[in-house]
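If you are new to this repository, start here. Below is one unmodified record pulled from the training split, so you can see the exact layout before writing a loader.
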Amino acid sequence: MESGRKKERRLAETQAVILAGGLGTRLRSVVADRPKVMAMVRGQPFLARLLNQLVRAGIGKVVICTGYLSEKIREVFGNKYRSLRIAYSEESVPLGTAGALRLALPFINSDSVLVMNGDSYCDVSLADFWFEHQRHGAKVSMLLTKIGDTQRFGRVELGADGVVVGFREKSGEAGTGIINAGIYLVQKSLIADLKTDAVISLERDVLPKWIGRGLFGFTSEGKFLDIGTPEDYATAESFFAEDLDLRPL
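And here is the target side for that same chain:
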């Protein structure tokens, strides 16, 4: 079995992309003057939590896909955060999650890309996620998590050995289920195949078409948080209560 140190070294060669261009419409009542990813949690912007996760994984480069109030992100983080070098890919008009990812292609230099939604967090070992991606020889891997109430999320259906076989759209279905945790490992060539200058959703338009083309899911036991609504954002302080990495910017 590959050692943890070797897994981390190989992951460090992978570039990260954070999708941070969303309008955050549902969160406007509590976060009106900044992008959703800059919502404050225990003295830091939420985005810093994702950047800290990348730092802990040994990743050295990240592209932040920005849009709404993008200057607010640049003003705080600039071109470097801790050991991370930061580049920005800015949408002039909203392009959706997949459209924003395609726009960022000129900034991506690694064959595999770690893609993260900017408004959610999963407490997972990115090195373990990378190892499972490599073990399957996957073209795309999705990080999944099991939660007790899936009403706000679509469910992911898995077949043998983690193959993704289907998606069930948001239907208000309660109860325990497996959901998309918003972290992916994707071959750069697949990103290049996406339409340019088009409004495309990674979740609705692209992932379903990748079923049967090397799409795998890795189910994590880590805690999961999505700050997309005022109610969930209100839980963020307690979610990170045990976080030891509370360094000020």
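Two things worth knowing about this chain: The domain at 4-239 is CATH 3.90.550.10 (Spore Coat Polysaccharide Biosynthesis Protein SpsA; Chain A). The radius of gyration is 17 Å.
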